[in-house]
Every structure is written in structure tokens, then in C-alpha cells.
Amino acid sequence: MLQSRFTRSRLLNQVLATTTLLAFIYFSLNNLLPAIRYNVVPHRHPILLDNAQSKARPGNNTSSPTVHLVIASTKADDTSWTSRLTIPNLTILRYISDDPSAPFHPPKPKGHEALIYFTYLHDFYDSLPDLTLFIHASETPWHVEGTLLRNTTFALSQLNLHKVLQQRHYFNLRVTWRAGCPAWIDTTKTHSDFDEAEEPFMAEAWRANFGVDEPVPDTLGGPCCSQFAVTREAIRRRPREQYRFSRDWIVDSTWSDAILGRVCEHMWPRLFTDEASDCGYAERGSLCQMYGVCFESEGELEGYKELWEERERLKERMSFLRAVWDAKKAAGAKGRFGEVNDEIERQLSVAWRRGHA
Ligand SMILES: *[C@@H]1O[C@H](CO)[C@@H](O)[C@H](O)[C@H]1NC(C)=O
Ligand SMILES: *[C@@H]1O[C@H](CO)[C@@H](O)[C@H](O)[C@H]1NC(C)=O
Ligand SMILES: *[C@@H]1O[C@H](CO)[C@@H](O)[C@H](O)[C@H]1NC(C)=O
Ligand SMILES: *[C@@H]1O[C@H](CO)[C@@H](O)[C@H](O)[C@H]1NC(C)=O
Known about the structure:
Distance between the termini: 92 Å
Keywords: Membrane, Transmembrane, Transmembrane helix
Oligomer: single chain
Largest sheet: 5 strands, mixed
Transmembrane segments: 12-29
Helix content: 40-55%
Shape: globular
Number of strands: 7
Number of helices: 14
Order of helices and strands: HHEEHEHHEEHEEHHHHHHHH
Mean pLDDT: 89
Structural class: alpha/beta
Bound molecules: 2-acetamido-2-deoxy-beta-D-glucopyranose
């Protein structure tokens, strides 16, 4: 009795082991190996229009403006990509939020990029270049549009600095509004009724930083994300004390970093321009005027953006885990990815050539 139960369970174990092994072999052949092989073969790199770079700027204009690139970073960030920027007369100032021994750092690791920007604006007020670019540490943040290849190197190398100097004075590097215009933030919202987390804080922040002479607008708007170019003159519209005050206001605040970063994001236009909001320019016009990427119609621009979104969805589908799960589908996605990339490249080249005709 005992003996036979033992034999049966040993048999069962053997059957189980064999089944598991077979299942594993099956899985390996069908999913794991293709997924590994497929991930070893690199995905084709996104198009770069590298050759576009050198021709982008009004190159033979010998009077290039002087430029500071202020990078808001933490110790962990890799900002080495900025050394490949070819903007003439560029000085890179990397601020490191959590390293008090870094040459450039804010008084405290606080308030996201906002405290860094105010620290720079105060400290360099008397020695500003013609133009300062304020950016985050990542080369490929989602803040940069697909029309600019979601690539800050590409965006900055296409940006027409002369037009910032002569026409815009303050220019948000992002030109897409999405929900940002005409009214993104409702400053009349309260802590018991709001859509955006910073809304109930906005009016108080505004009054604290701008005082009674500049009443709080009911709504604020603009493209998001706190990456922008601004001229010396635009910065000096306000006295140095303004930037010291705002810097110290952040240092002393009890609000969270996220709230501080967001309320400041909505104050940049008012600091540097006559307007409280930054909704006076349409996306397609700005893209053409400032970056030389000129889509012929709104429809053409929308078509491009849809392609870019498809590209993002395909990229997700091509991840290793997804490929292990369903190798065939991932391979299909990869095929389509190539087509979409080609079409993006084609459409963007046409738009770029139109902007440089
Ligand atoms: C730039 O070069 C073009 C052609 O070589 C010339 O016609 C133009 O005057 C130049 N512009 C400046 C600002 O030097
Ligand atoms: C050359 O640069 C100067 C100084 O920024 C500017 O005033 C001028 O308009 C530029 N010329 C061209 C042809 O871009
Ligand atoms: C800016 O760069 C131009 C050449 O690109 C150079 O002629 C000029 O002297 C530079 N100006 C400064 C202030 O470095
Ligand atoms: C961003 O664009 C630049 C120039 O267009 C290119 O050299 C670089 O490899 C790109 N970076 C990424 C992460 O795609």
C-alpha cells in the first residue's frame, strides 16, 4: 500500500517534471529566444536629420549672440549630451540641486527647477549673456514635442536665437499647448474644489511674489514644462531684488517641491513679458518661425503628430517583456515601427526644407 502510493507519486513527479521541462523548451523556442534575438538586433535609431544641424542657424552671421545654458539637474543625471551642442558662444552652467559642493547649486535641494532658475537669475543678474536657455537634465524629455524629435539637442540646434532676441524675448521651448491654453489654471479654485493640484496655491504664490500692484489674473495659461529661452533685457525688466525675493520665498516655503515647481511654472511669462499668460502664438506658426519646421497646414501637422503617437505606442509594444509574452506581435510592431519612422523622417524633412527654403 505504502509502496504503491510512493511509486505513484514518484511517477507523478516525473510526469510533472517532464511536462514542465517540455513547457519550458516550448516557451524558450517560441518566446524567450525570439525575444532575446529580437532585442539583440538594435531597433533602428530614430531619425535625426543630423545633416540639418549645420545649415540651421544663420551660419555666416559672425555676430553670434552670447548664450548661457542653465541646466537644472541632480547628481544622478547624465548631462554629457550637452557637450555635443554646437551653438556658438555657448557657456554651460550645470546646477546640481543635491550637491552643495558643485560650482553651481541652489541654496537648498528644493522646489525642482524653480529654485535653480531663480538662483541663476539673481546671481548672474549683472553678468548676463545676450540670451539664457533654461532646461532640464534629460536630452529626451517628453516635454519636447515629436515635431522636434523629442530631442533637446535637436530642438536647441534648430532654434533661431536671433528671433528670440529680436522678436520673442521670452520663448517657451515647447510650442504645443494641449490643455495649456487659453486657460489652464483657474486661480479662484479652493482647497476643496480644484482640478490641478497647484490651483488652490496659485493666488497666494502670485501675491507673495508680485505684490499688490499686480493683481492675480483669474486664469493662467501657456505651454507647459518650464524650459525656455529669455533675453537679458527681458530678465532685467525686473530688478535683481525680484529674483532674490522669489529664491528666498521658495527656500522658506513649507509647500511641497511639486507645488512650488508648478506655481513657478505659471509665473515665468509674467516675470519676463507684459502678459500673464503665454497663449499668443499658435503651435504651427511658432514651430515654423522659431525652429524652421514648417508644416503646410494644420491637417499636415496633425497627421505628423498622429504618426508620432503611433511610434510611441509601438515602442512600448516592442519592450523585452512584451516580446517574451508575444514575440510575433513584437516582431510585427517592429516592422511597422520601421515604416512609421521612415514616414516621420520623410514628413519632417519636407517641413524642414520648407522652413529653410
Ligand atoms: C551670408 O552669405 C550669403 C551667401 O554667401 C550672403 O549673400 C549674405 O550676405 C551673407 N550674410 C551675412 C550676414 O554675412
Ligand atoms: C545677425 O546677428 C545680429 C545680432 O544678433 C542681428 O542683429 C542680425 O539681424 C543678424 N543678421 C542676420 C542676417 O541674421
Ligand atoms: C561669438 O562667436 C563669434 C563667432 O561665432 C565670434 O566672432 C565672437 O567673437 C564671439 N563673441 C563672444 C563675446 O565670445
Ligand atoms: C538627439 O539629436 C542629436 C542631433 O540631432 C543626435 O546626435 C542624438 O543622438 C539624439 N539623441 C537621442 C537620444 O536620440
